[in-house]
Every structure is written in C-alpha cells, then in structure tokens.
Amino acid sequence: MVRYAVDGLARPASTVTGPVRPSVGGPARSIVPMTAIAGAVCLTSAQQGKKAKAVLLAGLAMAVAIVAFATQGVAQRKKQPAPPPVAKETPLSKVEEIKREQQPGAKESVQADVSARNVAVTSSFSGTEIVIFGAVDNSQQPSAESGYYDIVIVVEGVPSRQVVRRKSNVAGLWLNTSSATFDLVPSYYAIASTRPIDEIAPEEFRASHGMGFQHLRFPPAFGQAQALSSEDVKEFREAIINLKQKQGLYVQDQYGVAFIGRSLFRSTIELPANVTVGPFDTRVYLFRDDQLLSQFSVRLTLEREGVERYLHAFAFQHPMFYGLATVAIAVAAGLLASTVLRRGAS
Questions:
Q1: DSSP letter string over 258-276?
Q2: Each residue's pLDDT tens digit, 104-150
Q3: By C-alpha distance, which of 247, 255, 253, 254 is closest to 276?
Q4: What predicted TM-score, i.e. pTM, was given to this entire model?
Q5: Of 66, 160, 162, 249, which shows the fewest CB atoms inside 10 Å?
Q6: CA-based nearest residue to 134, from 95, 82, 98, 173
Q7: Where are any strands of DSSP class E within the chain?
Q8: Alpha-carbon Rg of the chain, whole angstroms?
C-alpha cells in the first residue's frame, strides 16, 4: 500500500493574508522567524527592567536576520535551477483575451463569454462561481432538447512545476520512498459538456487538444532525482490528478452544459478558495457529429486586491526592504509592549 503527496510551486489564492511566503525560499521564509525572535527577546528582556539590554539584543537579532536573509538568498541563487516559464500573475500583461477559430466549410460559429473576466481576491475570498454563456450563430438546431449540437467547455488555470512524492509503509512509518517532478501542471482544470466527451469528440482530437484528465499535457521535468519507467510516470500522473480532484481543483461535469434555446447555452464553473491566483484560459468547442465546427477562447483573471496586493508586490519586488520593515515592526512592537507592561507593574 502506498500514498502520494504533491508539492507545488504555485501560490493558492487563499494564502493572501499574513506573512508572504515565496514559492521556493526567499526573504519571508528567513526573515519572519527572526522577526519573531527579535520581538520575543525585546519583550522578555524589557519585562525584567533591562531596557538597554533589550534594545541591544533586538538590534543583534535584526542584524542576524539581515545576514541570514542575504546568505540564504545568495545560496539559493547558486544552488537552485531556474524554474520553467509559467504564466505570469499580473493582470496588466497585454495578452489577447479573445480568440476565434472557424473550421473551413462550417456555417455555424460559436460565441461565448464569462460572467466576470476579472475576479478580485481579498482576505475574505472563499471561492467564486463563474457563469459561461454563449450562442451558436446560424444555428440549425430545431429545439434546445434535440441534441443537434454538442458543447465542450474547458477552463485551465496557471501552469506550474509540481513534485509528487510516493509514501510507503516502512516498519510502521509512512516515509517518502520516491518522487517525480512534472512541468506545466495546470493549477486548475475544469471540463463541462452537454454529454460525456468520449461520445462527442474522437480520441485523436481529445489527445491533441488536451481534453480530459487522461490527456492533460504535463511532461516529466528534466533532471529527475531518480530514473522513472513509463509505468512510474503513469502512476505519478494519476496520483497528481487524483489529489487535485480531492482538493476540488480538477473538476469534470459530463452534463454541465445546457442549451436554453435553439442557439443559447450556459454552464457554471466553481472556483474553490484554494485556487491559484493568475490567468485562466476558457475554451469553448462546438461539435456536430464528432466534427469540430468552431472554437472560441476567452481569458479570465484572478487578481489580488486591497492591502494583500500591495504587500505581495512589495515583498517580491523589494525583498530587502520588506525584511527590514518586518524586523523593525517586531522591534517596535516589543518595545511598546514592554513599556506598557512596565507602567502597569508600577
């Protein structure tokens, strides 16, 4: 019996409050523990009436924090390879939001949109619901219930590198015994259709367009820690998909799209609270008798708003100043608390 666990480099939208922690190391990971030490040392010493010593020790802790940050950052830049290119998180990137593709000879075309192209992520974000709607131009469908056309909707989130670990029972303890790294793993993947997709599109089309969980295209990364057989790769891929499904990040609804008229259709996609912030590609396919007639793509973006957005940008754009600011806040909080406690005791 084995178990699996996934480590990812993407940051979920629900982790927008508190100290910002980068994906792989970084300033917050080394500065925040030292921040706590600085405040605790200052408060403890001041409670004993040794104000000068408290300030001295706090300054020493601040210096240690800065040195730890600098040395760790340099070491990580030397040791860690550059991650693969992934979709950027900024909503200001000039990316074409709408794409249309019409098959030669097809009279019908599909038009679609989402209920919100920009979704604000704040500290109270607990998930959201996106409505995808559209229409079939030049529709020949006699009624909404006729099943003349089929619609497939795919929503794909930010790709990232994922590490999946296999845990085995060794002498009664669950230990990591092997692992595999995959690139370009979608942080979120939802697929909805008017009926099961294997009845709508042929196998070749689903494989070439990454339609369905079994056809997701995230290749094994180069430089694996250990050699992987084709069977190992298959097991690790299935483990990632199963774990993402349990987290509500991979969703499939075989009857999630419904026609509400001769040409109008709609579907509802839920984005959970743990979804990763960034751009989401929404693709709508129109089929008739196993043949693709038209395709429409639109992009929606989850972006941080409010104080969390500025804290996140400040921490990653100016890590040194962010580290100094957190240490200064901790020292000031310790001094303030010690002053209040000393006055209360007197």
A1: EESSSSEEEEEEEE-TTPB
A2: 989 999 999 999 899 888 878 889 999 999 999 999 999 999 999 99
A3: 247
A4: 0.69
A5: 66
A6: 98
A7: 2-8, 98-102, 109-114, 118-121, 128-137, 150-156, 159-170, 173-186, 189-193, 250-253, 257-259, 264-271, 278-288, 291-304
A8: 26
